[in-house]
Amino acid sequence: MTRLLFWIALIILVVMAIRSKLRAAVAARGFDPHAGQGGAAPAGGTRPQARVEEVERMTSCAHCGLYFPASEAVHQGGQDYCCEAHARQPAASRIE
């Protein structure tokens, strides 16, 4: 019986050590898994600045209806198209 308790305690200690090492590695990279969820700030004071990526506006092709970034649009006749081939074809009449 004591042998079984020893192995259970050993497994628990190994799991706790691994979790501790993983948390330390994540903290060293400056990643906060609770950012944006009301998590507490790190003990060092201020929370590290998160990288904010700019969100690009999406548009749809007037011919096929595919959504894609507006920066990649082919503009013709006041409408957006996904490629030159669709810009040469008439716009489809879709019900949206």
From TrEMBL:
InterPro entries noted in UniProt: PP0621-like
Domain of life, per lineage: Bacteria
The protein's name in its UniProt record: PP0621 family protein
